[in-house]
Amino acid sequence: MNGKIAPSMMCADIGKLTETLELFEKTGIEYLHIDVMDGVFVKNFTLGTDYCKNLRKMTKIPLDIHLMITEPEWKIGWFDPQPGDYVSIHAESTNHLQRALAAVKSCGAKAMAALNPATPLSALDYVLDDIDGVLLMTVNPGFAGQKLVPQTLTKITDCRNYLNERGYSHVEIEVDGNVSFENAKKMCAAGADIYICGTSSVFCKDASIEENIKTMRACI
Ligand code: DX5
Ligand code: ZN
């Protein structure tokens, strides 16, 4: 098991950001997951371009920018994606998925296609050469603290098989939503690679962030 952890920064205490980032660097956190929501694609409004810009001044940990916005294909440059970053584009958010993914790659970043729970894997059929990862929403996007959509566990396995059968075993699978310690074990067994950890795990109030990271590492 060598899963990667991407804490969901919308769940982080902004007042303790410096110490939280220092802890993440000390514990080898692989990505910082940035949920960008425009109030249109999802009915919530969260982190934005300035947050990303300031975060880059505070840490070298790569960003994993989750664009839950309309017309992403024209807005990717606003986030100044860097080599090593992931930028995920929802297949449901644009008529120009391939254009958007190619735009991410042209910035030197890694491109990820994001799928809501109900969206079939066939949405990936004609962009497999444009992606480095697939983000499978395991809740309906928009809010932290939701419960896993149960059928998404099978979807993780189906996605791993779908990619491997087509010769894309290098494409990573990222899971996003209610990644609790218990769910993470099931997601790992199903074939996930990158775990977005919010209130269900890393930022769970029952223990310290450092303890939660240790527990999560043991699950994935
Ligand atoms: C969901 C968000 C996630 C996540 C937050 O739209 O993209 O960041 O759900 O973590 P949890 O689900 O554990 O509160
Ligand atoms: Zn997210």
Give structural attributes.
220 residues, alpha/beta, TIM Barrel, eight-stranded parallel sheet, binds zinc ion
Can you offer a commentary on this structure?
It is a single chain. Strands 1-8-7-6-5-4-3-2 form an eight-stranded parallel sheet. 30% of the residues lie in helices and 19% in strands. Strand 7 (172-176), helix 5 (181-190) and strand 8 form a beta-alpha-beta unit. The mean pLDDT is 97. It is globular. It contains six helices and eight strands, in the order E-H-E-H-E-E-H-E-E-H-E-H-E-H. The chain has one domain (4-219): TIM Barrel (Alpha-Beta Barrel), CATH 3.20.20.70. The chain has helices at 17-26, 49-58, 97-106, 152-165, 181-190, 209-219; strands spanning 4-7, 32-37, 63-68, 86-90, 110-115, 133-137, 172-176, 194-197. It has 220 residues and is of the alpha/beta class. The chain binds D-xylitol-5-phosphate and zinc ion (ZN). D-xylitol-5-phosphate (DX5) is lined by residues 8, 10-11, 33, 35, 66, 139, 141-146, 176-179, 196, 198-200. D-xylitol-5-phosphate binds next to strand 2.
How is the secondary structure organized here?
Elements: E1 4-7, H1 17-26, E2 32-37, H2 49-58, E3 63-68, E4 86-90, H3 97-106, E5 110-115, E6 133-137, H4 152-165, E7 172-176, H5 181-190, E8 194-197, H6 209-219
Parallel strand pairs: 1-8, 2-3, 3-4, 4-5, 5-6, 6-7, 7-8
Helix pairs in contact: 4-5
The protein binds D-xylitol-5-phosphate and zinc ion.
Q: Which sheet architecture does the biggest sheet show?
A: 8 strands, parallel
**Which strand order does the major sheet show?**
1-8-7-6-5-4-3-2
N-to-C series of helices and strands: EHEHEEHEEHEHEH
How would you state the average pLDDT, rounded? 97
Within CATH, the superfamily carries the name Aldolase class I
Supply the CATH class: Alpha Beta
Task: Supply the CATH architecture.
Answer: Alpha-Beta Barrel
List the total number of helices.
Answer: 6
Number of domains: 1
Helix content: 25-40%
